[in-house]
Amino acid sequence: MTMSETNSTIQKEQKPDSQSNIVATDITSSPKGEEGCHGGAARMQEAAKAAGKSQVLEQYAKDYPAGPHDQPQSMCPAFGSLRVGLRMRRTATVLSGSACCVYGLTFTSHFYGARRTVGYVPFDSETLVTGKLFEDIREATYKLADPEKYDAIVLINLCVPTASGVPLELLPKEINGVRIIGIDVPGFGVPTHAEAKDILAGAMLKYARTEAEAGPVAQPTARATSLPFISLVGEIFPVDAITLGRLLEPLGLAAGPVVPTREWRELYSALDCAAVAMLHPFYTATRREFDAAGRPCFGSAPVGYEGTAAWLDSLSRLLGISSNLVDQAKNAVLPAIKGALKGSPIDARITLSGYEGSELLVARLLLESGADVRYVGTACPRTEWSDPDRDWLESKGVQVRYRASLEDDLAAIDEFSPDLAIGTTPVVQKAKELALPSLYFTNLISARPLMGPAGAGSLAEVINTAVRGRERFASMEAFFEGVGSGNSAGVWEPQTARVKEVA
Ligand code: SF4
């Protein structure tokens, strides 16, 4: 089965999916009627454990600790793994799950610009229960495993196949020279899509590390430098990787590959680094592989004046770089960062929340730009790699909340009455209802350079423009006053009641 054939199967198999929904409902239904992505998680967990997935779920529970909320409201976690797979060249990514989930994930991945086909092995209640689904996955994997086209095939079990124990780990590790990687990414065991990125990035690094330990591996296609380099962990804006390279130059270092990588050979290269910059702090499985390869890691990122100075200091401590060189590196960039921050001031009170894992870094940059940041919520867990940022923010009086829920983010808006709320879709929606300027974190903030001089002034324009729009919001609110609420919401309860009374 080719990727386009597997994709067309989505269209052909609409009827069987109605059967697969029967199975999904059967597994997830709860006596309290809590079915759905975020309901019945305990039952799904029990089913998955009974079906042989205990070890995987226990590892996830260790890697991605829940609490104070079990699962912040967010998109389907599997999107993170799917995105990482779809960004890799010469990699086929295949989903196994209910067609409704696959439809949503395929839609979202193409909305975010995926240029590759999403593979799908459909199932119905019979193939799920009899184990035929695993045979179908195996057959599809063999048909896809063309070394002319692919370095790797990634197979992702969604909620129902994970709860049913579909054993992707029993697939061959390699077919015709194509690497086979099967992972379980259920919504009831992985809190956020950010952490699902880590699951696949970590699984690929583990595979590549095992290959490198077994013997010589292919050279990366383009190693631009012979200097020792720093591997960069986190999906960063492309300009940030160039900025990091310039920051490292005076230290006799270079910027290495960004993990998650874009091609298989970069994984070997990433493992060959001098140290690892954990720019995004939630990559726990990825870090485990760097640990196993003996590569030291350090946290935070070079954002703003103080953030950049502190980042250079912790890197130099880690690698024992002389203070002279560090001073040279600082002198080369800090004045430019100071100038950029001064030239693009932000004068606004801001609350900020998101699920990308870079929220604390953005908050640092906003504060250094002059903003009055009161609250930072992130759907990601607390790890040691964001401790420097948390310490710094808390020392400035900012409330930092890990695994923040939507309710936390909305309560912060109520408590701090900001001039601007930066957040996820429901936060922005709520802010609009309040006639409060707001910006989407994922689309408008995290898709910008943040680091070094390039990042220093990059947020001011979009933020200041949004804050200036407050008057427009006020006039719109006055114009539409009352529309969409009470009797004008489209639910005419009082009138209906009166009609009944009259009747
Ligand atoms: S796979 Fe994703 S969309 Fe489907 S039920 Fe699980 S969490 Fe929800």
Describe it for me?
The chain is of the alpha/beta class and 503 residues long. The chain has three domains: 3-191, Nitrogenase molybdenum iron protein domain (Rossmann fold); 229-338, Rossmann fold, CATH 3.40.50.1980; 345-479, Rossmann fold. It has helices at residues 3-12, 14-28, 41-63, 78-87, 99-111, 125-130, 132-144, 159-163, 193-214, 238-248, 264-271, 284-292, 304-319, 323-343, 359-368, 387-395, 406-416, 425-433, 441-445, 452-456, 460-468, 470-479, 493-502, and strands at residues 91-96, 118-120, 152-157, 174-175, 178-184, 229-233, 254-259, 275-278, 297-299, 349-354, 372-378, 399-401, 420-423, 438-440. The strands form three sheets. A five-stranded mixed beta sheet has the order 2-1-3-5-4, sandwiched between helices. A five-stranded parallel beta sheet has the order 12-11-10-13-14, sandwiched between helices. Helix 13 (304-319) runs antiparallel to helix 14 and helix 17 (406-416) runs parallel beside helix 18. The radius of gyration is 25 Å and the shape is globular. It starts with a helix and ends with a helix. Residues 1-35 have low confidence and may be disordered. The structure holds iron/sulfur cluster. The site of iron/sulfur cluster (SF4) has 9 residues, from helix 5.
